[in-house]
Amino acid sequence: MKVTLDSVDANGQPAHDEWTGKFDGKDYLLTGDPDVDTRAYKQINDHTLAITEKKGGKIVLSGRVVYSADGKTRTVTGTGTDASGKKTSVTTVYDKQ
Questions:
Q1: Averaged pLDDT, 71-80
Q2: I want to staple 19 with a disulfide (CB 3.0 to 4.6 A). Which of 30, 70, 72, 79 is the partner?
Q3: Domain range spanning residue 45?
């Protein structure tokens, strides 16, 4: 699977990262994100993936990716620690266009 993400950060700057790997729970290289070196996905069931992101071998985010039964919505939730050691949480909902 190849995942390419183009977005805009909190400061209005464009961001781009790429990840290529399998849904086997192993770490695969992620490029383009200064806060993350690797990402791992593991399939939990037909609609749910576990996700782990690391920087320098240390977990910076762990969470879930859940796809709706109709395939039209993807919800990503996670918790982690930012570069300054502050606890973070994220919830992002994507709707299929």
A1: 95
A2: 30
A3: 2-95
